[in-house]
């Protein structure tokens, strides 16, 4: 790399030495001899998450079925307890959030409730850059209403395959739209949408709106109640570091607590009367009312410790460091990787308030570079057609990790030429 001090390893180490959150890195188990920059796909295991996971295993071993009602940590209230812990990360009241199901199942549960087409308003507005599972679910929800997805699912088009035009989104929220479903952060490019502004626009047109926040919760602070969004859903295995297949979340604004969930199950029942085993369903009037199945106790055991670690660090502090780290990566790319023979191009918005927690780099040989990076044990991911995604996670990564990434990218190109 350049001999200039500002681009040196020594500078990266200086930045780490003054970083308020640097000590959290030692709380995580990083795979041996790797630079792990894939927290936007799967966050690393922390000691804190391992502790609560092992505690729950111990409860199962020693208590058996009594674990559901044990005095210290009753599993019966596990989903609500975790929801309350996560509520402050999204600017919600404890009863508005519950840990349950998986992301796509929760999307189905919410859309089946909130999508009630009429003759005048019968379309769902989504976007073509969303993660495909959301689109698949929306297509099936339209079909369940005996409507045609080709006519009743409108997708906002992207001009460049990377970003969405927010003005265009607002224009497409027309009088025939019954529901809007959008991602908070685009999974390829990392574009962060203006949740507050788009929500306000939808509500002015009397349209309900829900958000998939899988790529933002845990790294970007949200204010769901203040912004007035109707509902949201997100996973916990990315920036929340809760492990593969861990329980997802539902947020329902309290203004909708009087709505009847369209898909019901035993754990959506009023907690105080749940064991009465009545055949008539009485819905819990909170986000918990949208639960369908029993909470995945083992599948969410690590989530408890993971959330405690994030709350201890503070979501505002996490966001501040995330922006500093991504800005540092952009700075190094601009100065060291854009000219010949490197030819990398930034595929993420430059403005801090328009990007989430990961950086996308574009390159014509992205697939080959991806394979080379994996040989160097730089863990990241590739998304077609030509995106390399890197996530400097504020708690588990260092500025030195970012420097080493750029150094490795330069080495790969230098050795290929």
Please describe what this structure looks like.
The chain is built from 13 helices and 13 strands. By secondary structure, the chain is an alpha/beta fold. The protein has two domains: 143 residues, Aspartate Aminotransferase, domain 1; 262 residues, 3-Layer(aba) Sandwich (Aspartate Aminotransferase, domain 2). A seven-stranded mixed β-sheet has the order 2-8-7-6-5-3-4, sandwiched between helices. A hairpin with a 3-residue loop joins strand 12 and strand 13. The mean pLDDT is 96.
Features:
alpha/beta, Aspartate Aminotransferase, domain 1, 13 helices, 36% helix, 12% strand, globular
Evaluate the radius of gyration: 22 Å
Structural class, judged by helices and strands? alpha/beta
Discrete helix count: 13
CATH architecture descriptor text of the largest domain: 3-Layer(aba) Sandwich
Low-confidence segments, given as residue ranges, are none
Query: Distance between termini?
Result: 16 Å
Tell me the CATH topology of the largest domain. Aspartate Aminotransferase, domain 2
What is the 3D form? globular
CATH homologous group name of the largest domain: Type I PLP-dependent aspartate aminotransferase-like (Major domain)
Describe what is shown at a glance.
By secondary structure, this protein is an alpha/beta fold. Helix content is 36%, strand content 12%. The radius of gyration is 22 Å and the shape is globular.
């Amino acid at each position: 790399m350049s001999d200039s001090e500002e681009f040196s390893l020594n500078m990266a180490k200086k930045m780490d030495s003054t970083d308020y959150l640097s000590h959290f890195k030692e709380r995580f188990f990083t795979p041996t001899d790797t630079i792990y920059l894939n927290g936007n796909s799967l966050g690393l295991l922390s000691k804190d998450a391992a502790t609560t996971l092992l505690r729950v295993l111990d409860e199962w071993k020693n208590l058996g079925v009594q674990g559901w009602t044990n005095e210290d940590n009753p599993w019966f209230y596990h989903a609500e307890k975790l929801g309350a812990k996560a509520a402050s990360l999204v600017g919600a009241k404890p009863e508005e959030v519950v840990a349950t199901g998986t992301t796509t199942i929760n999307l189905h549960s919410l859309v089946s409730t909130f999508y009630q087409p009429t003759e005048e308003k019968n379309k769902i507005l989504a976007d073509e850059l969303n993660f495909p599972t959301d689109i698949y679910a929306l297509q099936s929800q339209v079909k369940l209403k005996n409507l045609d997805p080709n006519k009743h699912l409108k997708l906002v088009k992207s001009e460049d395959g990377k970003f969405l035009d927010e003005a265009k989104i607002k224009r497409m929220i027309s009088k025939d739209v019954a529901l809007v479903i959008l991602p908070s952060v685009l999974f390829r490019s990392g574009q962060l949408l203006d949740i507050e502004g788009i929500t306000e626009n939808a509500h002015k047109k009397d349209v309900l709106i829900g958000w998939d926040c899988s790529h933002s919760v845990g790294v970007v602070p949200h204010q769901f109640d203040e912004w007035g969004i109707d509902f949201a859903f997100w996973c916990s295995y990315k920036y929340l570091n809760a492990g593969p297949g861990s329980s997802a979340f539902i947020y329902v604004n309290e203004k909708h607590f009087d709505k009847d969930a369209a898909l019901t199950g035993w754990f959506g029942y009023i907690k105080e009367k749940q064991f009465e085993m009545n055949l008539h369903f009485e819905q819990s009037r909170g986000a918990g009312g949208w639960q369908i199945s029993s909470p995945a106790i083992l599948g969410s055991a690590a989530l408890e410790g993971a959330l405690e670690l994030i709350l201890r660090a503070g979501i505002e502090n996490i966001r501040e460091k995330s922006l500093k780290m991504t800005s540092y990566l952009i700075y190094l790319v601009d100065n060291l990787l854009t000219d010949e023979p490197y030819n990398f191009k930034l595929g993420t918005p430059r403005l801090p308030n328009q990007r989430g927690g990961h950086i996308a780099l574009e390159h014509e040989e992205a697939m080959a570079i991806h394979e080379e990076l994996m040989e160097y044990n730089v863990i990241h991911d590739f998304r077609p057609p030509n995106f390399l995604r890197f996530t400097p996670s504020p708690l588990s990564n260092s500025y030195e990790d970012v420097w080493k990434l750029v150094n490795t990218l330069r080495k790969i190109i230098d050795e290929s030429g």
